[in-house]
Amino acid sequence: MGCCNRRCGLIAGAVFGAAVAILGGILIPLGNSVIEGTVKKEAVIEPGTTAYDNWVSAGAFVYRQFWFFDVKNPMEILQYGATPVVVEKGPYTYRTRYLPKEDITFNSNDTVSFRLPQGAIFEPAMSVGPEEDNVTSLNLAVAGAYAMFSKDDHSILEAMIKLSKSSLFQYRTVKEMLWGYKDPMLKGQVGLFIPYNNTFEGNYTVFTGKDDISKVGIIDSWQGERSLHFWNDTYCDMINGTDASSFAPFVDKKKPLYFFSSDICRSVSASFEESKDLKGIEVYRFTLKPSTLAPPTVNPDNKCFCRDPTTTKNCTLAGVLDISSCKENKPIYISLPHFLHGSPYLREAVLGLHPSEEHHRTFLDVEPTTGFTLRFAKRIQVNMMYGPSKDITILKKVKDYTIFPVVWMNETAALDDETADMFKKELISRIEMLETIQQVLLGTGAVIFVLCLILYCVVRRSDNRNKFV
Predict the structure, then answer these.
(1) pLDDT per position as a tens digit, 411-429
(2) Residues linked to residue 287 through DSSP beta bridges, in sequence order
(3) pLDDT, position 30
(4) CB of 147 within 8 A of CB of 384?
(5) CB distance 322 to 307 below 8 Å
(6) First vs last C-alpha separation in the chain
(7) What is the pLDDT of residue 431?
(8) Mean local confidence (pLDDT), 294-316
(9) What is the C-alpha radius of gyration for the chain, rounded to an integer number of angstroms?
(10) Distance of CA 358 to CAs 60, 72, 90, 92, 206, Å?
(11) What does the pLDDT look like over 216-267, one tens digit per residue?
(12) Which of 16, 90, 135, 383 has the fewest CB atoms nearer than 10 Å to its CB?
């Protein structure tokens, strides 16, 4: 009777162990389903969700750092046609995007519309000097007028330059160069980012994700239009993806992320590079491909972005994008800082440039479960162009068209320690706890089942031996 009780107990233990293991196995898909449902619910842009609270507020501090290219040999350039030599000067740092979204309106087609206020507050502690620091830089008005005047009108521009005593280069403060000054030649306000303070970026209309979570944050329209009108081409005028602040949850690192940037007036894509640790949170790092600003000879998709064959060497010059059509015809050329991934010609025409993948590339660090961008660095360079002229005195020694770097900008943000702790507590720790419970149940149940099965076999063999003794 005792032997039977022992064997029955071991069988019961094995059954219990199997049941525990099965429960652990069941919890894996069930737990994953619960996590997926919760994340999808909280990722919708509507009042009461985590995504909405982060989306509507200013969120993490966003900074714009500026490095100017200080010209060291302006007189030699004018008098002898010397190659320009520049030295990077910066950073001069401003806090931006500190104001919450305005005019938020939910629409009937699963979209929400809003405007994004713009403002900049100087951060002395994060800068190399005050806004009143001076730099020797390209004369924005002269370079701008040169690009807009035809060769037949160069004599008119020459008269304007002489009358205002302007030159190809000027000595201005950082504040003037960024936010504006009254130019003596144009008799109006000129600046790289004028107007900026007390203005709005938008209007944007994006999908909330309520009906289809895969579309959350994707831009439905910008400035009231579903496509751009800058490039005169269906492909190049497409508005693809989000604004890069977030993406659909459960990010697949095998697929590129698409986003639209109003700074460069086009949509781009970023590809997975590697996993990174950000304050204890795993993030996927996505970076722009070198082909983003490649010439059409390398990337045929860029053919419609080439607007000026003359200055881009018959559309074979890599690394620059003419965005004048979306900047009120201001002759602005965008590139990566120090002409990273650009043609060698660009760095040979202006000396003192040192491109670096580490310091000059754009990247997004995206948390894969939620799709939230937890850290980013958007780096772009503002350039202008000038060239030779037989009628304009200050350009008579210039031998060829020059894409001249004026300033490069690093717009960056990262979640702070408090937000990181909250993120880990509310999401990561719960997922890890559920996974731990699953593994403990599955492992414990399997051990109990195997152990009881082994002991049952041992007891049964022992009982059989005793019968024949």
Answers:
(1) 999 888 887 777 766 666 5
(2) 271, 363
(3) 46
(4) yes
(5) yes
(6) 18
(7) 60
(8) 89
(9) 31
(10) 23, 26, 17, 19, 32
(11) 999 999 999 999 999 999 999 999 999 999 999 999 999 999 999 999 999 9
(12) 16
Mean pLDDT, the chain, as a whole number? 86
Place of tokens 């807009």: 148
Report the SS3 class of residue 50.
Answer: helix
Burial 426-456 (b: 16+ CB within 10 A, else e): ebbeebeebeeebeebbeebbebbeebbebb
- Written as six digits, the tokens of 84 are 């320009």
| 94: its two tokens | 């401003």
Alpha helix locations (H) across 388-428? 417-423
Q: Which two tokens stand for residue 342?
A: 């650009």
Three-state SS string over 161-199 comes to HHHHCCCCEEEEEHHHHHHCEECCCCCCEECCCCCCCCE
Give the position of tokens 């401003």. 94
Q: Which residue has the higher pLDDT, 463 or 375?
A: 375
- Are 321 and 306 spatial neighbours (Cβ–Cβ below 8 Å)? no
Please, what's the b/e burial string for 216-233 (b: 16 or more CB within 10 A of its CB; e: otherwise)? bbbbbebeeeeebebbee
pTM of the model: 0.85
Q: Give the containing element (helix H, strand E) for 357.
A: helix 357-360
- Is the pLDDT score of 31 beyond 60? no
Written as six digits, the tokens of 397 are 């020694």
Cα–Cα distance, 76 to 79 (Å, whole number): 5
